[in-house]
């Protein structure tokens, strides 16, 4: 299967193609260069676009006095609600501190305490202060700045901006040997082209745009996960879409990216209140307001249902240096008419992070030879049913380095692409009804009835095909494929676990200590397996 495109009008090549310029793509590209491999880095908008630059809270790593990777592991496993792959968690927490030190050596500057040590804060699910942050609440912008400076300084990395990867190219023996791209460029590289490589690394980030309200930027349309599915790769854990509990509530009419109020604000003392001014998280979990994200999100959702009010309150007026500690959040609150130093902030959950994605091994290798996945697009198993706060930037750093090391050891031979089979394309006008239906039926709380209704809508929307290849149509088609995968898995998992909550199955069940793995064949038929956790 592939998306409908025009005929490729140009071609290029490199040892490895990296798709995406967030923390995962940039880290992979830099590490590939350290082994002398040539890299083509393609990214669908400006190079600094993506979730990475929006990251607020920070990066988790066991760097503080008395902290250990083992304690970080315990918190990661607890948040993951029984579905983490222990080996992947071990890799994340044990290689994490070194990966962060390397990032600092590459030029990233983190905030310091009064004594000159790196300042560490706390977020939901962490039993220790282990979150490094930069610019107060602008960690992602600093990580992105430092990595981009290093990438731009390396002439062995060719960068093509405004280059949207559409589909994988495969050889007769089924290995991925390149991608089709659409470039909005000038000169010889404009329109649809082909880039060949010995391996392709997908680092296209998340799929937050599958819902009406999200913290994710507009580029987060799950393109790489959809590309991998169409190439025959397995995806796993896709029902576990994490909803961030505290997103600034403005109006349901506001769709797309919404301003985040970092969990670190609660880490510094802010508390959640319901419309009766009660601190409703107290007694609900031993960590109260700093319980793992799924627990807080569902409690907020319950409070909203009780009160009929589409938000709860976050009271941060007790944080004395709010403007310095959280300058980005302060600015976005003020821009929305709220002074968080004087008044409570209305907040509600919104889609935030895909804990699942393309199933990979500990070296980022997918089930399709030649196709590697890094960052939020991947399912390494490190997050299980719910990612621990600030483990995502870390995952990009750790697994980006591992993918490069693996490719340096075992770079496949360049394959010759063969023509792919059937093509599909949906009309971009499906986007709004798709997002509304996903938010209503497959959001924070789901049930068989709500999921089936959404499935029905998705089936109807799949009839709205298009014959006009363009960016909006490719993105809408990708979101439709991923929405279908999410709904299928969510219907299959008849229990509540992590960020997948079912009103008709409110409890977790030991029978479900397994992962739902899905694949699509060349005719568009889905295959679903339930695999035991390793
Ligand atoms: P991204 O950074 O999203 O990069 C994806 C890249 O792929 C982009 O360059 C995009 O343009 C490109 N792309 C997408 N599709 C295509 C295509 N078809 N062709 C070519 N290029 C494509 N995590 C933490 O650990 N700590 C935090 O404090 C934190 N705060 C967050 C705050 C916000 C508001 C958000 C949205 C997320 C936050 N996260 C945080 C999550 C974290 O930022 C992301 O999971 C992480 O940055 C993902 O990195 P990535 O490289 O996988 O993807
Ligand atoms: C936040 O700052 O609350 C987001 C952190 C994360 O997604 O890990």
UniProtKB/TrEMBL annotation:
Belongs to the FAD-dependent oxidoreductase 2 family. NadB subfamily. Keywords: FAD, Flavoprotein, Oxidoreductase, Pyridine nucleotide biosynthesis. Residues 15-393 form the FAD-dependent oxidoreductase 2 FAD-binding domain. It is found in: Cytoplasm. Catalyzes the oxidation of L-aspartate to iminoaspartate, the first step in the de novo biosynthesis of NAD(+). It catalyses: L-aspartate + O2 = iminosuccinate + H2O2. One of its GO terms (cellular component) is cytoplasm. It is an enzyme of class 1 (oxidoreductase). This is L-aspartate oxidase. Its EC number is 1.4.3.16. One of its GO terms (biological process) is 'de novo' NAD+ biosynthetic process from L-aspartate. Pathway: Cofactor biosynthesis; NAD(+) biosynthesis; iminoaspartate from L-aspartate (oxidase route): step 1/1. Its cofactor is FAD. SUPFAM superfamilies: FAD/NAD(P)-binding domain, Succinate dehydrogenase/fumarate reductase flavoprotein C-terminal domain, Succinate dehydrogenase/fumarate reductase flavoprotein, catalytic domain. Coiled coil: none annotated.
